[in-house]
């Protein structure tokens, strides 16, 4: 599990750093990450409307960016669904 966590953190920082700030994902960075890294887990990942809706549901403080903790919500939901832990 440690390796998986390291990969998640590394990938988040890699995509977040495209605009010079590795602590948050902009909408464009989030779209790139989801399209490249989660195409089979996020339906319609290439659709900008889907990304807008998904990002809006995760962006708790409505600042237009995702912190790692906000992003982590998505990972938890996807892992839960993948493992059959959610309905």
Summarize the structure in words.
With 87 residues, the protein is mainly alpha-helical. It has four helices and two strands. The chain has a two-stranded antiparallel sheet with strand order 1-2. Helix 1 packs across helix 2 (27-37). The radius of gyration is 12 Å and the shape is globular. The two termini are 24 Å apart.
Largest sheet: 2 strands, antiparallel
Mean pLDDT: 93
Strand order of the largest sheet: 1-2
Morphology call: globular
- Flag low-confidence runs: none
Percentage of residues in strands: under 5%
Secondary-structure element series: HEHHEH
Secondary structure: number of strands: 2
Helix percent band: 55-70%
The computed structural class is: mainly alpha
What is the straight-line distance between the termini? 24 Å
Radius of gyration: 12 Å
Q: Helical region count?
A: 4
């Amino acid at each position: 599990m440690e390796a998986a966590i390291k990969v998640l953190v590394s990938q988040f920082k890699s995509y977040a750093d495209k605009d010079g700030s590795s602590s948050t994902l902009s909408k464009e960075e989030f779209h790139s990450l989801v399209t490249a890294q989660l195409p089979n887990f996020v339906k319609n990942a290439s659709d900008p409307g889907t990304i807008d809706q998904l990002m809006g549901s995760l962006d708790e403080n409505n600042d237009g960016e995702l912190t790692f903790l906000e992003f982590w919500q998505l990972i938890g939901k996807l892992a839960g669904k993948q493992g059959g832990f959610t309905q």
